[in-house]
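go over my protein:
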Amino acid sequence: KVKWHTRDGKEARAGIMEWRGSILSYTDLNGRVLKVVPTIHPAATFRQPEYEQVCIRDWQKIAHEGTFREVHHPVRTHYIRPTLDDVDRFVATCEQRIDNPVAVDVENPDGPITVVGFSAEPSTSLSVDMTEGYWGTEQLPKVWALVKRFCEGPVPKILHYGLSDSFKLGLRGIHLRNYLYDTLWMHHCLGAADFHSLDYCASQDTRQ
């Protein structure tokens, strides 16, 4: 966050490291729609060498985006309020496509797991609320049973820092099987000195 905004009477705002790598657009006074890809100033790499890979990758994206005027954001569908039938159908569909890996992500901001997310293809994802407040006392165990069936089943899985997610699931007696790839480990192999958070990797490797 930009420090000086907390001192000038304004609320904290996202700084350049929060915006960099994004593909944005705005309309100027002449009605032209202009594409903008924010990045840090290259001189920052002299003061903070860890920004070198950030800068290189951002400028590679800028060079690519400069070859066409349109923004062309990808169209994605994200389901956030599934029914029990939706979750059951998703698990069954994944089990029928055993050669198709599925990305899995576990969220537990305050301790217990609150959300388990899945994505079987880049354009679609499903977030399953794992709280009693959403499902009620009768349906929640059925949802956990479906998550367990999926996690322990034969479908290949992709995670980002899966050791953490495996541990969280293990606390609930769910053993993650067929853990095929870990994008954090893979990204670390590509550049150990680079940043490796999921949002950072997405800012480099996806068009958002």
The two ends are 20 Å apart (CA to CA). The mean pLDDT is 91. The first helix runs from residue 16 to 19. The chain has eight helices and eight strands.
